[in-house]
Structures are given as structure tokens and as C-alpha cells.
């Protein structure tokens, strides 16, 4: 974030690439890699890492970044779905309306500028909406995280595909919501695993027992 404020592009790209590895360390410090949750989150974050470094190595950064992060979102959605089904209720179903409305509106606004990337934009919009919707039905951390990822991609999509769009400090909005969204989504998913290494443990302190005779 500091690198963006100071217009240090190379430093911003380098530090952004540290996000996914840091979250992978957090995942593996909490879970064994043999656990399904650890495997899925590590895979999703590895894809996000490749998406983060793609602009530095490819001349077609938009497409490469979008495809890689799309795959990461698909893994996130597959990880969220079982927990969403477990906590299913009417409120969670109603959340499809605002999330769907946001994604449809953004797609209609950005479709004209997508050009050959239009099919990718359609799939990306659907998967992004699914992640935001599913994350809302797991716990508050995933809910906020999924919503922030939706915000990040929405602002980025407008800057790429919506001619004439101008959002003040858009880079800061995109990066801040991207970092916080990924972190909260991962931490929220880790909270669904009772057997994590740093889970709160029951107190083993002494207790007072009174026996009436």
C-alpha cells in the first residue's frame, strides 16, 4: 500500500507477491498438509500467487491474471460450498439478490469494453458472484472476505473495461480490498476446522469442588 502511495510500481508488484506465500505459511502453521482444507487453500493461494506475479512476466497480463485468479476463485468456491450448505437458511438465500444484482450490473457496464475477453468476463463474473454468495453463509470472516474480493474485482474490472470510468485512488481500493479479502476468507475457512494447531484449548486450570455431606 505504501508503494502504491509513493508510486513505486516495482516495489508494489514485489510486495503484492508476498501475500499468498504469507497466507500459505498461516495455513500450514494451523493445519497439516494432509488435511483437505490445507490442500485446497494451498492450491488456491498458489494460483493467486501466480496471478500476482503474471504482470511482471507476460505481455498479456490482463488475460493471464484473470484466468489464474479465476481458477483460484473456483477452488475457493468448492471449499466454501459444503459449509454454506451446512448453515443453509433463508437469509443466506436472500443474499443472492444483492450480490447477483451487483455482478449483473457490472457485467452489463463492462461488457462493451471487454472485446475478445468477453467470454472470460462472463465466467469470471459468475464465479466471483458464487464466491461472494457462498462466503456469506459460512461465518462473519468469510462473509467480509468474499465481499471485499467482490469489491476488489469490481473496481479493477471497471478500470480495465469501462471506458471513461474514474474512481479516485482506484489502485488503493483494489489492493486494500484484495489483501484484506484474501486474508479474511482464508482465516474464516481455517476457523471452520476444529483440529487446527492454534485453536483455543479448554482451560486446564484447577477447579473448586464443594461436597455437601
Describe this structure in words.
It is a single chain. Helices cover 72% and strands 0% of the residues. The chain has 213 residues and is mainly alpha-helical. It has one domain. The radius of gyration is 20 Å and the shape is globular. It starts with a helix and ends in a 23-residue tail after the last helix. It is a multi-pass membrane protein. It is found in: Membrane. Its main location: membrane. Belongs to the TMEM86 family. Keywords: Membrane, Transmembrane, Transmembrane helix.
Strand content: under 5%
Which whole number gives the mean pLDDT?
79
The major β-sheet equals: none
What is the number of domains? 1
Query: Per the principal axes of the C-alpha atoms, what is the gross shape?
Result: globular
What is the count of helical runs?
10
Q: Helix content range of the residues, please?
A: over 70%
How would you classify the helix and strand content by structural class?
mainly alpha
- List the helices and strands in order: HHHHHHHHHH
Low-confidence region ranges: 206-213
Distance, first to last CA: 67 Å
Q: Rg to the nearest angstrom? A: 20 Å
Number of strands: 0
Topology overview:
Blueprint: H1 2-5, H2 9-16, H3 19-30, H4 36-53, H5 61-86, H6 90-94, H7 96-114, H8 118-135, H9 140-161, H10 170-190
Considering the chains and any ligands shown, give keywords for the structure.
transmembrane helix, Lysoplasmalogenase, 213 residues, transmembrane, single chain, membrane, mainly alpha
Amino acid at each position: 500500500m505504501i508503494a502504491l502511495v509513493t508510486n513505486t510500481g516495482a516495489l508494489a508488484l514485489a510486495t503484492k507477491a508476498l501475500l499468498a506465500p504469507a497466507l500459505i505459511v498461516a495455513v500450514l502453521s494451523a493445519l497439516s498438509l494432509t488435511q483437505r482444507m490445507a490442500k485446497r487453500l494451498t492450491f488456491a493461494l498458489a494460483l493467486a500467487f501466480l496471478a500476482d506475479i503474471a504482470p511482471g512476466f507476460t505481455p498479456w497480463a490482463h488475460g493471464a491474471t484473470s484466468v489464474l485468479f479465476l481458477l483460484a476463485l473456483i477452488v475457493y468456491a468448492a471449499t466454501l460450498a459444503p459449509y454454506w450448505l451446512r448453515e443453509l437458511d433463508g437469509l443466506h438465500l436472500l443474499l443472492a439478490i444483492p450480490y447477483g444484482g451487483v455482478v449483473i450490473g457490472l457485467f452489463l457496464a463492462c461488457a462493451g469494453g471487454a472485446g475478445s475477453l468477453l467470454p472470460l468476463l462472463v465466467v469470471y463474473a459468475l464465479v466471483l458472484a458464487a464466491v461472494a454468495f457462498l462466503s456469506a453463509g459460512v461465518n462473519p470472516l468469510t462473509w467480509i472476505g468474499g465481499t471485499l474480493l467482490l469489491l476488489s474485482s469490481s473496481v479493477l474490472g471497471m478500470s480495465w473495461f469501462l471506458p471513461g470510468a474514474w474512481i479516485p485512488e482506484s489502485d488503493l481500493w483494489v489492493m486494500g480490498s484484495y489483501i484484506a479479502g484474501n486474508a479474511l476468507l482464508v482465516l474464516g475457512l481455517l476457523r471452520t476446522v476444529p483440529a487446527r494447531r492454534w485453536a483455543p484449548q479448554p482451560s486446564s486450570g484447577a477447579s473448586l469442588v464443594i461436597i455437601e455431606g
